[in-house]
Amino acid sequence: xxxxxxxxxxxxxxxxxxxxxxxxxxxxxxxxxxxxxxxxxxxxxxxxxxxxxxxxxxxxxxxxxxxxxxxxxxxxxxxxxxxxxxxxxxxxxxxxxxxxxxx
Length: 103
Description:
Elements: H1 3-37, H2 39-42, H3 66-75, H4 89-99
């Protein structure tokens, strides 16, 4: 490999490390917010506990885009309250990323 190839490999490696760290941090924050705000009704594993809360583990349960899910969480639905003004959009997106790990 020439020097340029090594340099590009090094830059790519650093970008992957920083992206993975950022992603892991967001996922961990999403888990914490889910446990704090959502788990009591939706269950620790997303199975749904209260009333007709959805089972997030079910295939197809999270087919909506992140943007659509953010809008739904901000607005609330039936027994689930609105989280607009309680959780910033970035925090809601982190919760959605965590929800997607239930599949």
